[in-house]
Write a structure and sequence with these properties.
three-stranded antiparallel sheet, binds zinc ion
Length: about 250
């Protein structure tokens, strides 16, 4: 048995028995793991209040490779994200980042690059809540790139001509030009300015992504296309619950 001390993001917390919780963490040292926080729901517990989603913590736990659930020993709060924001939308996109991590990162897949990038994205979303949509699109594109599925926006996947506008072909998981995609009844269309926006975002770091950028006419359509693209390549559906709340809030 080893004692692990690591930075972590709280992804989910589920009540367990009378006073405990099972907590899904995305840790810097060991990737995604589950821990049991014994007695965490008791009033006097020193774990109480720290295990909420969107908290960035330092966790100490006992690790045994043969166990599915590790035992949490101690937690320090490094930062509670989105607690000062009055903008519900930015918290929803923060939760969408957590949900996406939960879906695309495999258990125990240790990836400090994804971890650091996730924390930086959430901190930036928290500070620049007006930009949460752009930052979320930037997050999906970047995660897709890190996982080896770079979203190609320059050339048609079929005829290899440069794309001016594009259609997402859900059968191949790639973009095609309008003439190659003329037979598709796909609702996933990207205009020239959508592609320009995505190209700019491809080249952007988190710092430059928050600079005023002309938002595409329907950023939510771009989000759905990118999620469909990523879902195709990881071979698992990505209907994020957090974003379904968002569409319920919209008029
Ligand atoms: Zn083509």
């Amino acid at each position: 048995m080893a004692i692990i001390k690591t930075e972590a993001l709280v992804l989910r917390t589920i009540p367990f028995q009378d006073s405990s919780c099972i907590v899904k963490l995305f840790t810097k040292e060991q990737g995604k793991i589950s821990v049991i926080a014994k007695g965490a729901r008791r009033l006097k517990s020193n774990l109480r209040g720290y295990l909420e989603p969107l908290n960035y913590i330092e966790a100490i736990y006992y690790y045994k490779a043969t166990r599915d659930i590790q035992t949490l020993s101690k937690v320090d709060l490094l930062r509670a994200l989105f607690i000062n924001t009055t903008d519900i939308e930015s918290s929803i996109f923060g939760l969408a980042v957590l949900e996406l991590i939960d879906r695309v990162v495999h258990d125990h897949q240790h990836d400090a690059e994804v971890f650091d990038f996730s924390v930086q994205t959430l901190e930036t979303m928290d500070r620049y809540s007006d930009n949460c949509r752009v930052l979320f699109i930037h997050f999906i594109i970047s995660i897709a790139g890190i996982l080896g599925y770079r979203f190609e926006t320059d050339y048609c996947s079929r005829c290899k001509n440069r794309l001016s506008a594009a259609i997402y072909d859900s059968g191949t998981g790639q973009l095609v030009c309008q003439s190659c995609g003329s037979y598709l009844s796909s609702p996933y269309k990207l205009t020239a300015s959508d592609l320009q926006f995505l190209n700019n975002l491809h080249k952007s770091s988190l710092e430059t992504a928050i600079n005023p950028m002309t938002l595409p006419a329907s950023p939510d359509r771009i989000i759905y296309i990118l999620l469909a693209y990523l879902a195709y390549h990881i071979d698992s559906p990505l209907n994020l619950k957090s974003l379904s709340i968002l569409s319920e809030l919209s008029p």
